[in-house]
Amino acid sequence: MGRSFALGTAFAMLALAIAPVPLARAATVEIVIEHLEAHETGAEPAVGDTVVFSNHADIAHNLYLTFEDGTVETLNTQPPGTQKSTVMKKAGHVIVRCWIHPIIHMEFDVIEKKLN
Amino acid sequence: MLEPILGTRTLIAWFVAVGCLSYGVVIGPGDATNDNNAIEGLSAADLAGLKQKFRRPEGIPFPRSNPHSLEKEQLGKALFFDPRLSRSGSMSCGTCHNPSFGWSDGLAKAVGFGMAPLARRTPHVRNMAWGAAFQWDGRAPSLEAQAKMPITAPDEMNMTMDLVVERLKAVPGYAPLFQAAFGGEDPINQKNVTAALATFQRTLVSGKSPFDRWVEGEDSAIGSEAKRGFALFTGKAHCSACHSSWRFSDDSFHDIGLKASEDLGRGKFAPPSVVAMQNAFKTPSLRDLRLQGPYMHDGQLHTIDAVIEHYAKGGEKRPSLSFEMKSVELSERERRDLVAFLETLAAEPMPVSLPVLP
Fold it and tell me: In chain A, is it the N or the C terminus that has fewer CB atoms within a 10 Å radius of its CB?
């Protein structure tokens, strides 16, 4: 009885270990811009997640993201009260700036795809 | 003999009352607020909040990478006014950034090497310590980086930094100044030249203006016209969308719909897809504005009335026109109020003594 139980438990654990693990659903991380400041969220989006930039300022912005490999993605002019979003395609450090307002500067890291 | 219907005392009182009422009608409602800090359409709380946004800071920020010292500041001042930093030996930073013209040159467009006209107006160099991007197109991320740009630009001072260092080393009087400012071996080098120039420029700060005194609570420091102008500036006229903070600039870049030229401004450095940066130039500070003009990055507007008219019309409509540019109807009185407000941003010029060069 004891041996059967132990064997059963071991098989069950092995089955769990080798079973295909479903990927986490892509998440959305929001970054709020108020006047001339992009608020740090502390969140680390993963590859595949969407980062949404919400312009809560009463002036327009034109954000661009510089990725660790030097590529730049521009989100174009963003009037007050609007959102722009982009999907994170690769892991690494990202710097967010604004073409119109160079004083805006924030950074975050994109991590590898999360597993459940 | 006829007897007066009203008594003498009654008649005098009547004349006084009518006279005062007439005076009130003549001076009009605009001056009724002359002796208090109320502004039509703004609550006391709103006004206090607005004033706070434009309050001047206490001290000058210096970066940790280039802290202030008096020796460095004095060396920077000598370099700023030394024409030997130009190839011709006849043009210093102070030639264009002339303190007698409010640290600019009063010209519509600057004059460069060989007296050739340049594409842009000379910006003044006050309040740079708080700057986020430098040059009309923002291509310099720091004052240290900016300092060498006009020195090495072929159409400006037309030098190389190597030649600057060589010339300075040949002037015996510079060695002790560099030694006092930086110490170490061989302190006359490119990095220290730009560090000293940046340090000196950070010390050029606008003096306290009537507007500053009003913000600090001196209600009579500015008149009622200027107070109404401030309300317009921060409200209906939408000026403070860009001319914000105590410097009256947020260092932002916009195409304000001026007559375009081949000079794309920040558009030269931004990807072509960033349409908003085409014809975009830096928002200039409005402190110590020279109200005799000229105005704009290329001096194309000559009077302050023309500037206000340009903003009232909203600029030329094109894809790159800034989102913040919106036409607005302004009455003659409102235009006068805006100018009255701008006048309150000017402080008494600070005394400047020219250095005796080594």
Answer: N
